[in-house]
Design brief:
Elements: H1 8-11, E1 16-19, E2 28-33, E3 42-47
Antiparallel strand pairs: 1-2, 2-3
């Protein structure tokens, strides 16, 4: 993956978010912030959402 956009709700301070890469629209990813005020880190993993 060469790029992605952080979900807007996470930009607004929430610790988790859901996103999709434009070229992989069938895969849904969950992003969880692991960072602190001094360190940026996150975990992203593929999830299956209920239809």
């Amino acid at each position: 993956m060469s790029r992605f956009q952080v979900p807007q709700n996470m930009c607004n301070g929430e610790a988790t978010g859901i996103f999709r890469f434009p070229h992989l629209s069938t895969a849904t990813w969950r992003l969880e912030s692991l960072g602190t005020k001094d360190f940026a880190a996150a975990l992203a993993y593929d999830v299956m959402l209920d239809a």
